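Form 7-S
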Amino acid sequence: MDDLSNRRVGPIRNCLFSIDGLSMVVAPDASRFVFRGKGAAHLAAGRAFGIDLPHHAFCTVARGTRTALWMGPDEWLLLGIVLEGVLIEAQLTEALTGLAYSLVDVGHRDVAIELSGAKAAATLNVGCPLDLHPSVFATGLCKRTLLAKAEIVLWRKAPQVFHVQIRRSYSDYVWQFLEQAAGDADT
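Output:
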């Protein structure tokens, strides 16, 4: 018998939405960790994760299947493929032995939606207060913000590609909001 207790099933799993100028998909499951630490812990975590954790506000650094997003002066969101979750945690825990840090696995808590196309920014701006013009919110930037009534982490992966990370419990609400916003968005 299949053990369903370890599966990450959300209300928007395997959804796809597309209209002229916008494509929206549920991002593949990912390993997600919130890391907090300063000084030696910050450097050790970067070495163990295989990426120099970003030092600058709202920046991301990616290498291979791993990405680090700056969330605050001593906080990073670390993303990797779901199958690497146990390995990532073990590598970080070993490298950080004896240092002051916090590492929390949030992979079960969050889900992500990816929007792409010419209408992606306009669709997000129907419910997001950030200025998403490329000269202000450039490729590689990330920010914790709101989309309608839900807290999200927004990351511009490419000029017309956005990664929207949300709590799993808000995923259906955000998906439906974005579907409706797509029809209201100006290009």
